[in-house]
Amino acid sequence: MTARAVTVVRSEGRIFPTHRCLVPASEFRHRSFSFSLANGDWFYCAGIWRPATDDWPEAYAILPIEPNADLAPFHTRQMAVLTRDQRLAWLHGLVPEEEILRPLPAGTFRVKRHSINPVQAMLAV
Fold first, then answer.
1. Residues 6 or more apart in contact with residue 97 via CB below 8 angstroms
2. What pTM value is reported for the model?
3. Which DSSP string corresponds to 17-42?
């Protein structure tokens, strides 16, 4: 088994009434491409967390969704990206999951190709 940079939990058709969290990031990577917001701003990945138990430490997972038009040519899934104005709606459950855990509009992401595979982890936090 190989180590993963990020743990993910499928989000479609599920509700997350508690234990929501945010993972701040400036970009994420897939193979030799990096993706960031076109406006250069930081963003958040929607996540959930689990409290520690006797035999396992506190942990979190990022929620994947279908990709938006910018990312679809590169992968069949993407992290649920939230903009700054969406962060409190996610944390406090102000809108249903299906309204916030969905792809952002086309043109939201800037795609940058790298000449070699990056050494940096897949998620730059």
1. 11, 14, 15, 16
2. 0.81
3. -S-EEEEEESEEEETTEEEEETT---
- CA atoms 29, 14, 49, 17: torsion sign: positive
- Each residue of 43-100: pLDDT tens digit? 999 999 999 999 989 999 999 999 999 999 999 999 999 999 999 999 999 999 999 9
Map residue 99 onto helix, strand or coil: helix
pLDDT digits (tens, 9 = 90+) for 77-92: 999 999 999 999 999 9
Listed by start position, the domains of the chain span: 20-124
Task: Provide the CATH number for the domain formed by 20-124 in this structure.
Answer: 3.90.1680.10
Q: Please compute Rg for the chain using Cα positions.
A: 15
Cα–Cα distance between 125 and 122 in angstroms, integer?
10
Identify the DSSP state of 120: S
Count of alpha carbons within 13 angstroms of residue 64, beta-carbon side = 13
Q: Which amino acid belongs to residue 4?
A: R
